[in-house]
Design a protein that fits this description.
By secondary structure, the protein is mostly beta strands. 8% of the residues lie in helices and 48% in strands. The strands form two sheets. Strands 2, 4, 5, 6, 9, 10 and 11 form a seven-stranded mixed sheet that branches. Strands 1-3-8-7 form a four-stranded antiparallel sheet, with no helix packed on it. A hairpin with a 4-residue loop joins strand 5 and strand 6. The chain is globular, with a radius of gyration of 14 Å. The N and C termini lie far apart (37 Å).
Length: 131
């Protein structure tokens, strides 16, 4: 199981970026996929989670309405579209996977919790938002 996050970069406040999380060695749709971030001196926090199998999503309150998580099962990739970026969004972003999760009710629960204690992690991608 491998995850590869990409798409980070430097952007001005108000700008947009799209992060990609590509999976290899497993099918993302059988897992709950999460995006997490860690800013310097701060703890890692959940940003968004998704189960493409049951269509459930979770968003951290501060990103609701600005970020959109989605999955492309054919590409075995989960995306995080980030719009209206703010300097407070500056962090290293990681994607992670929990599972496999087959039961739909359990999938929805894992998505709703969206905890950093997922089993599989990719390397991070740095997002820097300048003011």
């Amino acid at each position: 199981v491998q995850l590869q996050a990409s798409g980070g970069g430097l952007v001005q406040a108000g700008g947009s970026l799209r992060l990609s999380c590509a999976g290899s060695g497993f099918l993302l749709r059988h897992y709950v996929i999460g995006w997490f971030r860690q800013a310097p001196g701060k703890e890692r926090e959940a940003v968004s989670c998704i189960s493409t199998n049951v269509g459930s999503t979770y968003y951290k309150d501060s990103v609701k309405g600005r970020f959109t998580i989605s999955g492309d099962n054919a590409e075995n990739t989960v995306y995080l579209q980030m719009n209206s970026l703010e300097p407070e969004d500056t962090a290293v972003y990681y994607c992670a996977a929990a599972g496999p999760v087959i039961d739909s009710v359990y999938s929805k629960m894992v998505v709703a919790q969206c905890q950093p204690g997922m089993k599989f992690w990719g390397k991070g991608t740095l997002v820097t938002v300048s003011s």
